[in-house]
Each structure stands twice: as structure tokens, then as C-alpha cells.
Design goal:
Blueprint lengths: L22 E7 L4 E9 L16 E10 L1 H30 L9
Antiparallel strand pairs: 1-2, 2-3
Length: about 110
């Protein structure tokens, strides 16, 4: 996807850690940079090791802050859009295959 558009050499730094996020906390633009704050939902036990209450919302912990130039933000948006289109196409093909099994799969 996005890798096929690269026209520059990438130097991977193996000491860069990976961060996980399952929530988008905030985005902002200050005129010079797009800032994105990401987080992870965690269900932490209450005091005394009790399970969290059902009606209490889960806690979200900040795991990453990303600041991008406007051009970098556009590249990210385009790459994510292409990825989402691919995932949507794959999902539609899978649903189509479930509802319309091919005649090649007839029992012998």
C-alpha cells in the first residue's frame, strides 16, 4: 500500500519501540503541526483486588503522542484511507463468498 509509493531509502532503527493503542484520545492542529494523542483502554482492579464495577467506564491511558507536519498528516490520512478501502473490499469479498458459495465446492 503506502510502501509502494516510497521514493526514498528507509533506515530502520531497531531500538525504536512499538506502542499499542486502541483509542484515539485527541487530535489538534496549531497551524504548524498536527498532534495526535493515542491511548489504551485498561480494566484495572479496584482497591483490594475487586473487579471493576460494570457501570464504571474503563480507564484510558495515554500511550503515544504523535506530532506531524501538515504534509505528513496528509500522507498518513491517504495511507489509512487506502488501507481501510482494502479492508472493506476484503470484508465484502468474504461476505459474498459466504452467501454465494462457488459451484467448485460441490461434494464429490
Amino acid at each position: 500500500m503506502a510502501d509502494s509509493q516510497q521514493k526514498f531509502k528507509v533506515f530502520d532503527n531497531p531500538s525504536i519501540g512499538e506502542l499499542y493503542a486502541n483509542k484515539l484520545i485527541a487530535t489538534s492542529f496549531d497551524g504548524g503541526a498536527v498532534s495526535i494523542t493515542l491511548g489504551t483502554t485498561r480494566f484495572m482492579p479496584e482497591e483490594g483486588g475487586k473487579s471493576p464495577k460494570q457501570d464504571k467506564p474503563a480507564s484510558v491511558y495515554v500511550t503515544a503522542r504523535l506530532a506531524l507536519s501538515p504534509g505528513g498528516a496528509v500522507e498518513l490520512a491517504n495511507a489509512l484511507g487506502a488501507m481501510l478501502n482494502t479492508l472493506s473490499d476484503m470484508q465484502q469479498k468474504a461476505k459474498s463468498a459466504e452467501t454465494n458459495p462457488s459451484s467448485d465446492t460441490k461434494p464429490s
